[in-house]
Each structure stands twice: as structure tokens, then as C-alpha cells.
Amino acid sequence: MPDDKRPIVSVIIKAYNEERHIAAAIESALAALVGIDGEVILADGASTDRTLDIAARYPIKIVRLDNAADRSCGAGAQLGFQYSRGEFVLLMDGDMRLHRGFVASGTGFLRDNPTAAGVGGIMINRDASGLEYAQRVRRHDPDRGPGVVTRLGGCGLYRRAAVCAVGYSTDRNLHGSEELELAARLRAGGWTLAKIDCVAVEHYCHVENPYGLLLRRMKTRNAFGPGEMIRAAFGRPHFGLVLRDDRNSRLCALVVLWWATMASVAAVLRDVDAVVAIAALFAFPFVVMSWRWRSLRHGLYSVMAWNTQALCFLPGFLQRRRPPAEWMASTVVKDPSGQSAQRAAVA
To answer: For residue 17, what pLDDT is reported?
Structure first.
């Protein structure tokens, strides 16, 4: 399609089984584009609930993965990106609600800052009562406030030209850490990322048993993300940035060191000395994290979450990879414009 027909903004909503939230997410995206030439694309990961039926009520483009086996966190954004046409591309999840003023503020920022590849804003977490999200809210995050950041996370508005310059949006092979990997590629390419003092989205957290969440992350391979990202970056210009900025990979290394230390003590010491030493080593991270959070419950969960990711790091690293820029097999479920699907992402 000629550039003069390209919309200003493509809002890509990534979703899988989001029947509870998808209507609000779509309505918020349409409201945010009032007065702005834009399009809304639902990138569906082969949902098995009523997500598509609900989404079909709205004047948006709906695209769906053909193969459920292709589903991943990285696949969602890339699926939507390959059908998008906007000069700027906003990525959000199906359990988010976009704030009306962010699109205008974000596009204005990117036009005023030509070296910026993307911009984010404030994310408000709703229903963040579970251990996982409660810790996220309380944890120090230098990328949370306004200014230059290492990643956008959750929701971001990206310059299409910058994403095309680094080959593709998010890596379809990643079941987690996909936003950090995209950010690292952009920064290695000479671009910057920033956040502005403006609410971008409200995120409605999934409330469930925290240990059930850890189990689900293993089943869906979301916990494979750190290993998959290190594998994807290995030998590439952004590898150093990934190593420096990925907290989860560093934690995996520390957990493995903890395991190895206990194993070494068991091999060297005998009898009571070994039992005492191993018990002390085993208890150490639980004590430290319980003190850190001022809560035994939070301390226990933190260490269990670390161990879950460490267990999944090697399987993630060894996962078979497909070319990340390869066209994803998918179907256009609905296209209100009536236009045929185009591989606009490479335009």
C-alpha cells in the first residue's frame, strides 16, 4: 500500500482467552484513536473461549494464528505487526485498557525525538493483590518512571521504521522476555527508548493462586523466556545489553550457584557437619528474602519463583528456533476495510 494511505497508528491487542477483558480493551483502543487516523488489530493466539465472538462485534481487524503450537508471548505482537500498516505501532495486552491521551502524547514525543524508537507511559495495575503482582508493584524498577529506559514493558508505542530496521517486532520463539529482547535489539541499533509522565494503560491482573501461576508458567513455557532470550541474542550485537539488563537470567545463575554450593558441601563434609552446613545454605535465601519483604510468605514465594525459572533456563536455551521474521501462518477472521492481507511489516 502506498505510504500516503498508511494510518498514523496501529493499535495491536495481543490476546489469548481474554473473554473477560477483551471488550473493554477494544473499546479503550477505539476511544484512544478518536480524532487520530488509526486502526485496531486483535492478534489472537487461537483462543478457545469467546474472545473472537466478542471481538467480532467491533469495527476492527481480527487475525488468528492457524497453529496453536505457534502460540507464544513473542508471537502475539509479531502476528499483529505483520498485518499492521501504521507509521507508529502500539502494543498492548488483552487484559489492558488504553488511556485516551497516551496515543496523542506518545506520537508527539516520537515526532519530536527522531532517535527514539519507542515510548511508554505509566501502567496502573488493578487487582494486584496476588503475591506476584504485589511484588512487582513494590519492587524497585528504574525503568518505571519517566526518562530514558532500557525497556518499555507491558505497553509501548513504537516507531515502525525503527522496528523494521531491526528486522521484526517481537521474536516469535520467545515465551517470555520478548519486550526486553526487542528493546535490546533497538538499542543496539542506535535507537533510544523513553517513558513519559502520562498514564498509558490500566492492567487488570489475573488473580490466581501464586504457586498455580508458577506451575502454569512451566506448562506454557513462559518460564523458558530467559533461556530462550539468551539463546536468541547469543553472538548478536545486542547480547551484551541482554546480559546486563536481564535480572531474571542473573537470578537463574545465582540459583544454580546456590545448588552447586550445596552439592559441593554434601560431597566434602560428612555426618552432622554436612547436615548443618546444607541446612544453613538452604535456609539462607529464604531468610534473606523474608527479611527483604518483611514477610515469610513473600520470601518463600520469591525463592520458589527463582527456582522455577532456573529449572526452566536450560530447556529454554535448548529450544528449537524458527526464523523470527518468517511470516506466521494465520487467518484474517475479520477485516472491516475489505482489503486483502498484505505483508505490510516488511514495507
So the answer is: 94
